[in-house]
Design brief:
Elements lengths: L10 E2 L13 E6 L5 E7 L19 E6 L9 H10 L4 E5 L17 H14 L4 E7 L1 H12 L6 E5 L11 H11 L1 H10 L16 H5 L7 E6 L8 H10 L3 E6 L5 H4 L2 H14 L2
Parallel strand pairs: 4-5, 4-6, 6-7, 7-8, 8-9
Antiparallel strand pairs: 1-2, 2-3, 3-5
Length: about 280
């Protein structure tokens, strides 16, 4: 276990190009508060700097979007890169792989300890000099951004939760019943490891983490956007409506006609609208 502070950059494989005065992407391993190495990428977006020392610190007022992917995703998945590609038109973007996913260490706890991974990425984004930080999460990541904002008040300036569950242990749809088999059965976890590149922890939650609905009620006054497709095959519309009701007046709900579930279903137009909303809401 590492004794480095959360957000500590252990290794950077790409450095800024000071000759062109443009910040290049940075790929590094952060460490969560419990010592898990988190594979992370910083994309500065379409921002050019007059003068940039070789310190990777843009010190700009543009927002940075910290993207929290869904279960079985990772920083190199095409749908995660597409999300980052659209959002970089609105500011810088940090993407990362949750524990147990991709090249990150540890094993997935399916939304529980992942809040520590997000906290490390948010701290890193702040350390890069951005005054405004927006978290954008999808599915499992959507629940994580809600819990992070509730448990770490004041650390982000706006929150976007896409295709999130409202409550734990939901088995009301066939995809969620298959997901629970994947998580709870030894043979399911083998499929996760070798078929989906996702290493899943065998232990049950203890204690059960704060639910997304409970978290949504605690986020104010941070602006919150809840986005859900009306054709989501995992979580029906009672989930986003529960979240919106818990959020009260500080939350906004978009129900997207024809949209399915999470990153793969979020088209470029929706992502651009999310970018516009977040840039305005974060001030």
């Amino acid at each position: 276990m590492s004794n480095r502070p959360a957000g500590h950059a252990a290794r950077s494989t790409v450095r800024p190009n000071s000759e062109t005065s443009r910040v290049a992407p940075i790929r590094t391993f952060l460490h969560s508060a419990d010592g898990i190495p988190i594979d992370s990428v910083y994309d500065p977006g379409a921002v050019v700097y007059e003068s940039l020392p070789d310190t990777s610190r843009p010190a700009c007022g543009d927002p940075v979007f910290v993207v929290a992917h869904g279960f079985t995703g990772d920083v190199d998945r095409l749908h995660v890169r597409r999300v980052a590609g659209v959002l970089r038109g609105h500011g810088a973007v940090v993407t990362f792989s949750f524990r147990g996913h991709g090249r990150s260490g540890g094993r997935s706890t399916v939304g529980d300890k992942e809040v520590l991974d997000l906290a490390a990425a948010v701290e890193w984004a702040r350390g890069l000099g951005h005054a405004r930080v927006v978290t954008v999460g999808f599915s499992m990541g959507g629940s994580v951004v809600l819990r992070h904002a509730a448990l770490h008040p004041g650390t982000v300036d706006a929150v976007v939760s896409v295709s999130s569950p409202a409550r734990w242990y939901y088995r009301g749809t066939a995809p969620m019943r298959r997901l629970h088999w994947l998580i709870t059965r030894p043979e399911g976890r083998l499929v996760g490891r070798y078929g989906l590149r996702t290493r899943i922890h065998h232990r049950d939650w203890d204690p059960v983490p704060l639910s997304p609905t409970e978290a949504a009620a605690r986020i104010a006054p941070t602006p919150l956007l809840i986005v859900h497709g009306d054709r989501d095959g995992y979580f029906p519309l009672d989930h986003p409506r529960m979240l919106a009701e818990a959020a009260g007046d500080h939350g906004e709900l978009w129900v997207e006609p024809g949209m399915g579930h999470a990153e793969n279903a979020a088209d470029d137009d929706l992502l651009a609208r999310i970018g516009d909303w977040a840039a305005a809401a974060a001030g």
